[in-house]
């Protein structure tokens, strides 16, 4: 308070209005996109509860990956009833779950024959190709999962916009 005096009301207002990009971030459109950095069973359970409150006329496509040190199988089980189609890939970070770890986690959760891609970007592109109006695409499982798609979208935005 001595170095940076801020009124309690301002702190309360800031906390109630703060938004974390990638935390149940919804981008409406013909195909709704939902980004969520959930990376453990509790957060994925919260995401599943939120999805239950958001009607979807079509299918729910999930682009997913997690880090190896997370409880992947329990996270999948927490949301699998909300997902029609999965698109999975290992992340491009040191702590990433490998393709075989992801595949085993899905098998343990009772989900077989899940398409596996080399990168999250490729998994996302596949989901985009399959989604039709009324569907939704959910990107989740890690901050890294969401960041890879945000980075791809930002790059696409800046390279396709006309110059000054």
Q: Would you mind describing this structure in some detail?
A:
With 164 residues, the protein is of the alpha/beta class. 42% of the residues lie in helices and 13% in strands. The chain contains six helices and five strands, in the order H-E-E-H-E-H-E-H-H-E-H. Helix 2 packs parallel to helix 3. The relative contact order is 0.20. The C terminus is likely disordered.
Largest beta sheet, briefly?
Answer: 5 strands, mixed
- Structural class, from secondary structure content? alpha/beta
Strand order in space, largest sheet: 1-2-5-3-4
Overall average pLDDT: 88
Helix content: 40-55%
Secondary structure: number of strands? 5
Helix/strand order, N-terminal first: HEEHEHEHHEH
> What ranges have pLDDT less than 50 throughout 5 or more consecutive residues?
155-164
Q: Round the Cα radius of gyration to an integer and report it.
A: 18 Å
